[in-house]
TrEMBL record:
It comes from the Bacteria. Keywords: Membrane, Transmembrane, Transmembrane helix. It comes from Methylotenera versatilis (strain 301). The chain crosses the membrane at residues 27-48, 60-82, 102-120. This is Uncharacterized protein. Residues 1-20 are annotated as: Disordered.
Length: 124
C-alpha cells in the first residue's frame, strides 16, 4: 500500500453529499425490471427475424449487393448512422442527453410488439 503524501488531504465529509439520496422503491425496481424485460424480448425478437433462413438480414444484404448502384448506398448508410450517433451522444461524459433514451424506448416498443405476438399467436 502506498504512503499518503502530506499534501494529499482526505476529505472527512467525502460522502456527505450522498446523505439525501434515497434507495429505489419496490415499485421503481419492478418498473425497471419490466423495462429491461421488454428490451430483452425486443432483442430476441429482432434477432430471430434477422437470422432465420429467409430473414430480413439476408434480404437486405441481397438487395444491397445486387448491383453497383445499390452499393452506393453503403456510404450513405454509414453517414446516417454517424449522424444518429452524434445526435444521441453528449459531448462530455458527465452530462447526458434525453435523445440518448430514444433507442431504449424504441427497443421497448419492439419488445411490446413481440410480446403481444407471443401472447396472441404463441410464437415470435
Amino acid at each position: 500500500m502506498a504512503k499518503q503524501k502530506p499534501n494529499d488531504k482526505v476529505d472527512p465529509n467525502k460522502y456527505l453529499k450522498n446523505k439525501d439520496i434515497d434507495p429505489e422503491s419496490k415499485l421503481g425496481v419492478l418498473a425497471a425490471m419490466g423495462r429491461m424485460g421488454l428490451m430483452l424480448v425486443g432483442i430476441v425478437g429482432i434477432a430471430m427475424e434477422f437470422f432465420k433462413d429467409d430473414g430480413v438480414l439476408k434480404k437486405i444484404l441481397g438487395k444491397l449487393f445486387e448491383s453497383t448502384t445499390s452499393m452506393m448506398m453503403i456510404p450513405v448508410i454509414i453517414f446516417v448512422l454517424w449522424l444518429l450517433n452524434r445526435w444521441m451522444s453528449s459531448g462530455s461524459k458527465s452530462e447526458t442527453k434525453k435523445s440518448g433514451d430514444v433507442p431504449m424506448y424504441v427497443m421497448m416498443l419492439i419488445g411490446a410488439y413481440y410480446l403481444f405476438r407471443l401472447i396472441t399467436t404463441g410464437s415470435f
